[in-house]
Design brief:
It holds the Pfam family DabA. With 51 residues, the protein is an all-alpha fold. The chain is built from two helices and no strands. The chain has one domain.
Length: 51
């Protein structure tokens, strides 16, 4: 829920959010879908994280 709230705040803000959405000129759904397609979870199988 926090990620959705943060994303919505960045989409609807007027330059005050810490991060910006990919494209505020797209429709709400198109902009959300473009951001949601990017996996931002850490890769737990990455050799750099395994010690």
């Amino acid at each position: 829920m926090a990620r959705i709230s943060g994303w919505a705040a960045s989409y609807f803000d007027k330059g005050q959010a810490i991060w910006a959405t990919t494209n505020q000129e797209e429709t709400l759904f198109a902009a959300w879908k473009a951001d949601a397609e990017v996996d931002r979870t850490p890769n737990l199988k990455s050799p750099t994280l395994i010690k």
